[in-house]
Amino acid sequence: MLTSNDWQGATVRRITTLSPSVRELELQPDLGCARPAPGSHLPVRLRLADGRVLERRYSVVGPSDDGEAWRIAVKRCQPSRGGSAAMHALAVGDRLQLLPPQNHFAPSLRAPQHLLVAGGIGITPLVGMARALVARGADCRLVYAVRQAEDLVYADTLRALLGDRLRTLVGSAGQRLDIAAELAGLHPDAQLLLCGPARLTRAAQAAWHAAGRPAHRLRFETFGAVATEAEPFWVKLPRHDITFTVPADQTLLQALDAHGIATLRDCQRGECGLCALDVLSVEGRIDHHDVFLSPAERDADRRLCACVSRVRGGGVVLDTAYRPDPA
Question: What span, in angstroms and rounded, lies between the C-alpha atoms of 27 and 94?
């Protein structure tokens, strides 16, 4: 949960349907709208009809035309953990709370060349990045991969901005993104900026490493864990002397919260690693859905990220950061 005291009220000023599953929302904050830096995300808090409070983060597409609101685009996920359904239920005039835009995905504007790669709704932070890079006269191109042609939201805007430096790939038309091929021929110090599902991020990490490129030149952000059919699993915490079951519709992090187990967290998308816990033993198989741990760490099953990872066919014994006060 975000702990900042800087939450402010905001109003849904405008809603635009971009595709059958994606809506763009203009959110006007009560205390004024600072111009968001490229790559920023907007923390959003809203209260559901049943009294629950949801906190989510959405990439900022950019400011509104008059600069008085922030624009985000939200894809309706099926199934939804609650966030996308709640955001799609909003109407013009509805109220919610925001934090000012935050940025953990800022591009390096000094790199000699920039490759932007988007998977699906991962295009949202790259729109502002492309604008900023073009405005600086930077050497950049963007590859935009989607499942269906209708998912190419912002393609017209980007085509007008980038021309033939934009390449779109539609899976239903048999077009596939080959990350290794896209990296071929890039400047040795080129920067890759990627946003998409975790499986795309993992493929990019593997290709980047295989090409011998410097790790700090790869910047990425995910928009969710790899979707799998979830099943319940048990968790044992020896230091707390507690064992419980994580239901299929709950994350391990949520279950820890429900049992009063304090756990560090930030992104809640498997990127930052703050919620990673040590694995003492496992029965069954850990489904690692993070992009923080290295492939070797995931294979070793010595740690897992509580926000996105699960266990199949059993359960797991974990060591938390809790240590009892000395007597």
Answer: 10
Q: Measuring CA to CA, how many Å separate 196 from each of 47, 106, 136, 177, 310? A: 27, 16, 25, 12, 21
Q: How confident is the model over 130-156, as a mean pLDDT?
A: 96
Mean pLDDT of 254-266: 88
DSSP secondary structure of 146-175: ESSGGG-TTHHHHHHHHGGGEEEEEGGGT-
CA distance 283 to 286: 9
Q: Does 238 sit behind a cis peptide bond, omega within 30 degrees of 0 on the bond before it?
A: no
Q: One-letter amino acid identity for 137?
A: G
pLDDT exceeds 60 at position 327: no
Alpha helices in 105-247 (DSSP H): 124-135, 155-162, 179-183, 198-210
For the chain, the distance separating the N- and C-terminal CA atoms, rounded to the nearest angstrom, is 31
Kindly report each contact of residues 200-207 with a partner whose C-beta sits within 8 Å and lies 24 or more positions away, as own/partner.
200/117, 200/119, 200/122, 200/145, 201/291, 202/291, 202/295, 203/179, 204/117, 204/179, 205/291, 206/295, 207/179, 207/180, 207/183
Nearest residue to 138 via CA among 130, 126, 128: 130
Please give the C-alpha separations between residue 37 and each of 42, 130, 132, 148, 293, in angstroms, as whole numbers: 11, 12, 9, 30, 28
Helix (H, G, I), strand (E, B), or coil: what is residue 310? Answer: strand
Q: What is the pLDDT averaged over residues 107-118?
A: 92
- Give the H or E element holding residue 14: strand 8-19
Asked whether 138 and 8 are in contact (CB, 8 A), the reply is no
Q: Whole-prediction pTM value?
A: 0.78
- Taking the C-alpha atoms of residue 139 and residue 112, their distance in angstroms, rounded to an integer, is 7
Distance CA 233, CA 178 (A): 36
**HEC profile for 254-309?**
HHHHHCCCCCCCCCCCCCCCCCEEEEEEEEEEEECCCCCCCHHHHHHCCEEECCCC
Bridge partners, 281 (sequence order): 317
> CA torsion 246→250→254→258, rounded to 10°?
-60
